[in-house]
Design brief:
Blueprint (H helix, E strand, L loop, with lengths): L4 H5 L15 H4 L5 H10 L2 H33 L14 E4 L11 H9 L7 E5 H6 L7 E2 L2 E8 L1 H20 L8 H18 L20 E4 L2 H10 L38
Antiparallel strand pairs: 1-5, 2-4, 3-4
Helix pairs in contact: 7-8
The structure holds 2-acetamido-2-deoxy-beta-D-glucopyranose (NAG).
The site of 2-acetamido-2-deoxy-beta-D-glucopyranose has 4 residues, from helix 5.
Length: 274
């Protein structure tokens, strides 16, 4: 009988040409080529034909099992990957790839509003020394209102800040205005985003063809982390940071904008008399 181990684990013969180096005639039998099957019918006895039919059924069953295994592998891949290390996010949010969004619209006034609204401020957080130690984070600027905390900027918010900087650079150039963004800052941002892309090594295969305008991946759904959950985590750990680019002033004044209006700093009641 052909029900050897190799046929249980390798359904590949079903898809291969018989000419592809098959020395094993038992495997030859299962190659699904109509003319071969006709020859088999003519040359082998009914008993052997029955055996061949059983083999085909067995192999078909094997193929089904392997197909089921393959599908389960796919669904296992689609399960959310491990939680992110800090905010505890899963890749559990399906979002389509859109070839264009409001950020690419024709109304430049509206487009500018959207890009200008991107800010890193919310992503400035104050983390406790215990947490910093547990996660082996580097020593950071002490939070001015609680020296037991260190100040950090979350990567995603740094990236948004960089995107806004690059948008400004593009718009100053595009509209012929005086350039306010130093080339070195623009290049820093481009390079930071480049490093992020390389670090993430995103392996999503974007399908090619069959889309208008031509491109890749249009409408394809991928599993994303939920930005609103990242934002919630950032707000929970807020460093009350707000700063307008290129506006000078003492660093400590940038940590006085708590989302819930809390006042963490000592209020000098004589301030108004100066
Ligand atoms: C363009 O966007 C601005 C800001 O959102 C809006 O006030 C204005 O009406 C828009 N213009 C047109 C032509 O839609």
């Amino acid at each position: 009988m052909v029900s050897n181990n190799s046929s249980e684990y390798a359904p590949i013969p079903l898809e291969r040409e018989s000419s592809e180096g098959w020395s094993n005639e038992k495997n030859e039998v299962v190659v699904v080529k109509p003319e071969k099957i006709r020859i088999l019918r003519a040359e082998i006895s009914p008993w052997n034909f029955t055996a061949a039919a059983i083999i085909l059924v067995l192999l078909s069953a094997t193929a089904n099992v392997l197909l089921a295994y393959q599908l389960s592998t796919v669904s296992r891949q689609q399960e959310p990957e491990a939680t992110s290390e800090f905010a505890g996010l899963y890749r559990d949010l399906p979002i389509q790839i859109y070839p264009s969004t409001d950020y690419t619209g024709d109304n430049l006034t509206h487009v500018t509003e959207l890009w200008e609204a991107l800010s890193g401020d919310t992503g400035v957080v104050a983390l406790s020394q215990d947490y910093i130690k547990e996660k082996r984070l580097p020593h950071a600027l002490p939070f001015p209102w609680d020296q037991s905390k260190g100040v950090f900027l979350l990567q995603g918010y740094h990236d948004l800040h960089c995107l806004r900087t690059l948008f400004r650079y593009v718009m100053y150039t595009e509209t012929g205005q005086a350039q306010h963004i130093a080339l070195s800052h623009a290049l820093h941002c481009l390079d930071q985003l480049r490093q992020g892309v390389v670090c993430n090594a995103d392996d999503t295969p974007r399908y090619a063809g069959f889309q208008d305008p031509p491109g890749t991946g249009s409408g394809q759904v991928r599993m994303c982390r939920d930005w609103t959950k990242l934002e919630s985590w950032a707000v929970e750990n807020t460093a009350c940071f707000k700063h307008k680019d290129e506006v000078p002033g003492p660093m400590v004044d940038r940590f006085k904008s708590c989302p819930d209006g809390r006042v963490l700093w000592p209020v000098d009641t004589h301030d108004s008399s100066h």
